Amino acid sequence: MGDGEPSLRLTDVTTTLDTALTALRAVDTDLDYRVGGTSAALLQGVRLPAGDIDLLMTRREDVDTFATALSAFPCLYPASWLPEAAQYFARYEINGVQLEISTVEWQVDSDGMECVGPGPWRHYVVVTCGSHRVPVVRLELRLATEVLRDRPDRYEPLLDHMSVHGFDSDLLQTAMTARHLPAERQRMIQDRLTSASPA
């Protein structure tokens, strides 16, 4: 999302996911997926800018299945392989909201990354969106991503939320290590969260 673009509201994300997952239910109810990105944080109560919805899939054929389910909606980018990003990727628009569906096919050993390796599949919470129970990547993994990208408009709200609602300190350390955050960035995060009670 570029500067000046409108941010999604929580209701935009929940209704879009409800619509997309209802369409998916008509063709396949067994696809494994995770919601990541800023919309995942929004679904967990963090008030931060979100420009689209990111769905992570494990297999390219699952992206194709989801694309088939969304065939009644405008396709902004047909499912295809992006070699520079190592992603099989598609983008749709549902009621004005962009929904991106992709694999991310990098090989990593750590489970501390948000959309790569085993992290999103092990570390998630389940959130209700309409008639669906949606698996959403944990905030600890998102925070490390946003600090690495140096996006304070995203990581400051995450830090504020986690300092009030708690966090998993071991998972956060795993995420910071996996992202190779510099020591000063790790200290900044720890200082901001010292008043919180780790979950």
Keywords for this entry:
single chain; about 200 residues; alpha+beta; Beta Polymerase, domain 2; five-stranded mixed beta sheet; two-stranded antiparallel ribbon; 7 strands; about 40% helix
How would you describe what is shown here?
This protein has 199 residues and is an alpha+beta fold. The protein has a single domain, classed as 2-Layer Sandwich (Beta Polymerase, domain 2). Helix content is 41%, strand content 22%. It has helices at 10-25, 37-43, 60-69, 119-122, 139-148, 152-165, 169-178, 183-193, and strands spanning 33-36, 53-57, 75-82, 87-94, 97-102, 124-129, 132-137. A hairpin with a 2-residue loop joins strand 4 (87-94) and strand 5 (97-102). It starts with 9 loop residues before the first helix and ends in a 6-residue tail after the last helix. The model has no long low-confidence stretch (mean pLDDT 93).
